[in-house]
């Protein structure tokens, strides 16, 4: 007896009868489509045949998710990524055997009936009644295609998938209405083609082309009779008939398909028997998806491409829209990765730091003037095993990097020098630069002045290191006290503003704190950030944001919009040329000698943090800029003393003796065969005395102070007393942890001086 809807509405049977306008026999169909009696399953009217007329007339078919191919700048493949492994192919690129096999086993009367096969329905009703359950379905191949569309639209959402596959009369009615529509609009061949491209064949393979590649390592157009029968048999139950995991069951199923093809005269009995006697003869290609398969150590570069796509609004207005577009795939993305540079980066990394070492290294190389990321690698590869990681050590946290980046040490000093030069400080400026000194009692900031309320001090690396020094020698020797005296003179605000112009921000996305210790690189940055900042020096003062995608096309071959670099002037050409001169001295006569390149202009700066928990070399030529970090990759910082790295023992690690050679070898290989342009430089003396300027320890820059301000102040009225700035420790959830802050905004000291080799 038919169940009555709550509220006294029409019965399910009467609702079904309304559908007779479409087909006189549809009432019978609706009562039994792949289901036993309605009452036997206790199907409530709600969710069954309600509102047939309310079902939209047009089936909206979502784009089929496919593989996306990521290429390097020369068109070489880096990796294929996908949420579903699928390659859509036209019907003429699918073996005729495959087409006949799927029709034979799934819907042998496919070309004879419409959207509904009445004979199939009656046969299923009879068998289901005899068994008391669902022993046989009655869905046509067209209906199965519609069901697959619903599943595809549900994506990876388990709730939506459950709704798309639930055994309710309502879903069957909806499926039927759409089946009638697509039969009318598409025709049999196009439906068959769509079905073969959408259906799941197990082993992560969606569509016949991916399945053919997975099980036989060949294209779908080349499938033989036996191979086609095997694939057609899988569709009914991909797990039960999995030829890799259950070869006996798969063989039985294949033979059933072959027998059915012989009965339908698709093949002769002799042909079917010959194939039935053969082994499966699989030639399995394992799934190769994602950045873990990237070549030449470019796994994290590949991951950065994905992060760029998911986060940049150019690919979609909302996070959800971008994620949906990425998962649909089918794109070809050409990146900025230079294969020569990437190979050189990876070789240098593996030559100098072993995957099993207690520390790791990360290297990023960018092109000045374009922002193109040419290479990116690290010693801990992309993966889930021992000494592998999913954290991109070259990137900011928002782009898949560590929580807080890594303290950059003395590699921040050139940014301070650039700020001072822009403020009018002479490149020949001399400071007394004692071995040890108190932090300034008060330093101007962008707001209230910072005050040293705790009597904290700063010192150089060793006691023999004392001034007076000029800017060139202080930079070459990385003299801490020189740069603290400099920031006392110009104030903190010009430094943070210069850092902002150079894209230098903490890896956790916070702002640089207004404390004098930033002069010594106490903030945590990423290698890509530092490489991009130094590229502005090479580019004579113009900073360009890093970019990683050159071009992209969608599944239809049409070009997609991609992010573009944004270039802006961060400093004058004169200032940039002066910094070039200073940093050439680091490589020629200072702490970076071991990083020097032969036969071309190069400049750079070493950096080593307190307790040697991080060591850096950031350097550049006129046509490439690169940053190298070495340190503990996890939450536990490694003090790099009495340590073996890459098979080489170090009593103490410095920026020059490990990061420096990594940078040198990576850059040398990357630049091999390329032009060797020269820097714009200026004449810089070791002191103001040598340059004919004022003698002595001049503690103010060579510019007039603004009215109402102390020398170096940048904001009227900013000399009012206020609370000292402080750096509060932050907790980490993964990756690394920041070093604890010291009182009054003084962070742990940064090593500098002659021993910062």
UniProtKB/TrEMBL annotation:
One of its GO terms (molecular function) is serine-type D-Ala-D-Ala carboxypeptidase activity. Pfam families: Transgly (PF00912), Transpeptidase (PF00905). Residues 77-261 form the Glycosyl transferase family domain. Residues 448-468, 674-757 are annotated as: Disordered. Residues 685-700 have a biased composition (Basic and acidic residues). Keywords: Carboxypeptidase, Cell shape, Cell wall biogenesis/degradation, Glycosyltransferase, Hydrolase, Multifunctional enzyme, Peptidoglycan synthesis, Protease, Transferase. GO terms for biological process: cell wall organization; peptidoglycan biosynthetic process; proteolysis; regulation of cell shape. It catalyses: [GlcNAc-(1->4)-Mur2Ac(oyl-L-Ala-gamma-D-Glu-L-Lys-D-Ala-D-Ala)](n)-di-trans,octa-cis-undecaprenyl diphosphate + beta-D-GlcNAc-(1->4)-Mur2Ac(oyl-L-Ala-gamma-D-Glu-L-Lys-D-Ala-D-Ala)-di-trans,octa-cis-undecaprenyl diphosphate = [GlcNAc-(1->4)-Mur2Ac(oyl-L-Ala-gamma-D-Glu-L-Lys-D-Ala-D-Ala)](n+1)-di-trans,octa-cis-undecaprenyl diphosphate + di-trans,octa-cis-undecaprenyl diphosphate + H(+); Preferential cleavage: (Ac)2-L-Lys-D-Ala-|-D-Ala. Also transpeptidation of peptidyl-alanyl moieties that are N-acyl substituents of D-alanine. InterPro entries: Beta-lactam/transpept-like (IPR012338), Glyco_trans_51 (IPR001264), Glycosyltr_51/Transpeptidase (IPR050396), Lysozyme-like_dom_sf (IPR023346), PBP_transglycosylase (IPR036950), PCN-bd_Tpept (IPR001460). In the C-terminal section; belongs to the transpeptidase family. This is Penicillin-binding protein.
């Amino acid at each position: 007896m038919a169940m009555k809807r709550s509220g006294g509405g029409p019965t399910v049977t009467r609702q079904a009868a309304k559908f007779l306008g479409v087909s006189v026999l549809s009432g019978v169909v609706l009562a039994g489509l792949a289901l036993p009696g309605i009452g036997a399953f206790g199907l409530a009217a709600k969710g069954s045949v309600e509102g047939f007329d309310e079902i939209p007339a047009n089936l909206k078919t979502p784009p089929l998710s496919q593989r996306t191919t990521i290429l390097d700048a020369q068109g070489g493949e880096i990796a294929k990524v996908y949420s579903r492994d699928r390659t859509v192919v036209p019907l003429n690129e699918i073996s005729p055997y495959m087409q006949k096999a799927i029709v034979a086993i799934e819907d042998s009367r496919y070309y004879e009936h419409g959207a509904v096969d009445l004979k199939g329905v009656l046969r299923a009703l009879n068998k289901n009644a005899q068994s008391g359950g669902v022993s046989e379905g009655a869905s046509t191949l067209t209906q199965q295609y519609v069901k697959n569309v619903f599943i595809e639209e549900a994506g990876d959402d388990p709730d939506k998938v459950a709704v798309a596959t639930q055994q309710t009369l309502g879903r069957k009615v909806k499926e039927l209405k759409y089946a009638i529509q697509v039969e009318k609009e598409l025709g049999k061949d196009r439906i068959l083609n769509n079905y073969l491209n959408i259906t799941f064949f197990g082993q992560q393979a969606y569509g016949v082309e991916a399945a053919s590649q997975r099980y036989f390592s060949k294209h779908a157009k080349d499938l033989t009779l036996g191979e086609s029968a095997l694939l057609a048999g899988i569709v009914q139950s991909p797990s039960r008939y999995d030829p890799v995991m259950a070869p006996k069951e798969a063989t039985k199923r294949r033979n059933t398909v072959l027998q059915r093809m012989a009965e339908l005269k698709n093949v002769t009995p002799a042909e079917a028997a010959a194939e039935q006697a053969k082994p499966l003869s699989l030639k399995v290609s394992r799934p190769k998806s994602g950045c873990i398969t990237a070549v030449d150590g470019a796994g994290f570069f590949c991951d950065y491409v994905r992060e760029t796509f998911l986060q940049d609004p150019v690919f979609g207005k909302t996070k959800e829209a971008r994620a949906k577009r990425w998962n649909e795939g089918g794109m070809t993305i050409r990146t900025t990765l230079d294969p020569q540079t990437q190979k050189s980066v990876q070789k240098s990394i593996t030559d100098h730091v072993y995957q099993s070492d207690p520390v790791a290294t990360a290297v990023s190389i960018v092109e000045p003037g374009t922002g193109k990321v040419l290479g990116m690698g690290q010693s801990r590869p992309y993966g889930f095993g021992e000494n592998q990681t999913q954290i991109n050590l070259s990137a900011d946290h928002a782009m898949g990097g560590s929580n807080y980046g890594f303290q950059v040490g003395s590699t921040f000093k050139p940014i301070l020098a650039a700020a001072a030069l822009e403020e009018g400080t002479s490149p020949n400026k001399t400071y007394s630069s004692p071995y040890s000194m108190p932090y300034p009692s008060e330093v101007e900031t962008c707001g209230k002045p910072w005050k040293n309320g705790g009597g904290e001090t700063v010192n150089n690396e060793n006691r023999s290191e004392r001034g007076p020094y000029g800017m060139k020698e202080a930079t070459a020797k990385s003299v801490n006290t020189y740069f603290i005296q400099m920031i006392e003179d110009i104030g903190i605000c010009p430094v943070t503003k210069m850092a902002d112009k150079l894209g230098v921000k903490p890896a956790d996305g916070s702002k640089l704190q207004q404390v004098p210790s930033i002069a010594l690189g106490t903030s945590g940055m990423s290698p890509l950030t530092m490489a991009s900042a130094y590229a502005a020096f090479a580019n004579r003062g113009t900073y360009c944001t890093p970019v990683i995608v050159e071009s992209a096309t969608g599944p239809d071959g049409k070009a997609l919009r991609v992010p573009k670099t944004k270039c802006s002037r961060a400093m004058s050409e004169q200032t940039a040329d002066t910094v070039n001169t200073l940093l050439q001295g680091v490589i020629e006569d200072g702490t970076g000698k071991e990083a020097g390149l032969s036969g071309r202009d190069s400049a750079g700066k070493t950096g080593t943090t307190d307790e040697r928990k991080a060591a850096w070399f950031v350097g550049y030529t006129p046509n490439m800029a690169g940053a190298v970090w070495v340190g503990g990759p996890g939450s536990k910082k490694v003090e790099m003393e009495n340590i073996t790295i890459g098979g080489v023992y170090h009593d103490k690690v410095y920026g020059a003796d490990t990061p420096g050679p990594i940078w040198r070898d990576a850059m040398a290989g990357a630049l091999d065969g390329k032009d060797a342009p020269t820097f714009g430089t200026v004449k810089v003396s070791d002191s103001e005395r040598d340059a004919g300027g004022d003698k002595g320890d001049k503690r103010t820059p060579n510019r007039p102070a603004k009215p109402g301000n102390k020398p170096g102040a940048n904001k009227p009225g900013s000399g009012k007393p206020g609370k000292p700035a402080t750096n509060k420790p932050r907790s980490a959830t993964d990756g690394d942890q920041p070093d604890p802050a010291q009182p009054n905004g003084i962070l742990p000291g940064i090593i500098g001086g002659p021993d910062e080799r």
